[in-house]
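Narrative summary of target 7.
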Amino acid sequence: MMERGSLEYYMSLWSKAHLKDDALSKKKLMLYSSKILANIKRYQFIQKETGVPWQLIAAIHGLEASFRFDACLHNGDPLGVKTTHVPKGLGPFFTWEASAIDVLHRKHVEKIKDWSIPQCLKFAEAYNGTG
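Modeled conformation, tokenized:
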């Protein structure tokens, strides 16, 4: 039996993943892809600073801040003021890049040496808490 949280568990989930083939899903995929590609250099900069794959940074950015660069990667709170949502009281951060580097270092990304697909999935789930 595979242990929840193991890399094998996440690989099993990945092997079952598929894209939906309906019009709305395709439209969302195109919209999100265009937002990511338009800002790829920003994500790649954060990868250089933290070691986290830019694709994962972009996915977290979409989840936490709806791809907005005027919001913290921590939780989507606005830049320029201390965060009010979990994690509370951080910052203020005046650039999206500063918030991204801060939160990723708080997640101890320097300890992760293998950024395989299963590791990225494990990190993404743990970003907001498992479950």
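The radius of gyration is 15 Å.
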